[in-house]
Amino acid sequence: MTTELMYLLLTAILTGVLWIPVVIGYVMSRGPLKPADYKVAPSGPLPAWVNRANRAHINAVENLVPFAAVVLIANAAHVTTGVTTGAAAVYFFARLAHAVVHVTGFSLFRARTILFTVGWIAFMTFAVELLRHAI
Question: What is the pTM of this model?
C-alpha cells in the first residue's frame, strides 16, 4: 500500500467515526430514541458541541470525496512523489486537527478556518502534482 493510500484510509476511518460524538450528544441530551421518534424526530435544543460535532462530520464527508478521487486516480496512474506523499500526510493531519478544533469549539486565531485552509491547500497541491504528471 502506498503512503497516499494509507493516508486515504486513515482519513476515511476518521470520517467514519466522526458521527459517534454526534450520536452520544443526541442521546445525552434527548435520551434514547423511542419508536415514535422515527416518524417525527425530536427537535429540542442540543448543546453547542453536538451541533459543532455534526457540522464537523458533514464537513469531513464533503471533503473526503475529492481527496479520495485524487488519491485513487494517482494510484491508478502510478503517480507517487514526495509531493503527493507529503500532501496526503498534511491533508490527514489538518483534517484530524480540524475535527478536534471544530468539536471542542476552540477558536483562538481562527484555528478551524486555518486548518481547513491547510487541508484544502494540501488537496490542491496533490491534485496539481497529479495533473503535472498526467500531462
Answer: 0.91
Report pLDDT digits (tens) over 6-60: 999 999 999 999 999 999 998 998 888 888 877 887 888 899 999 999 999 999 9
CATH number at residue 117: 1.20.120.550
Give rounded-to-5 percent helix, strand, coil for the chain.
Answer: 80, 0, 20
Residue 93 domain boundaries: 3-32+47-134
Q: What phi, psi does 48 have (nearest 5°)?
A: -55, -35
40 lies in some domain: no
Give the type of residue at 123. Answer: F
Report whether 88 contacts 126 (CB < 8 A): yes
Angle at 118 between CA 9 and CA 128, to 5 degrees: 75
Quick one: cell of 9?
484510509
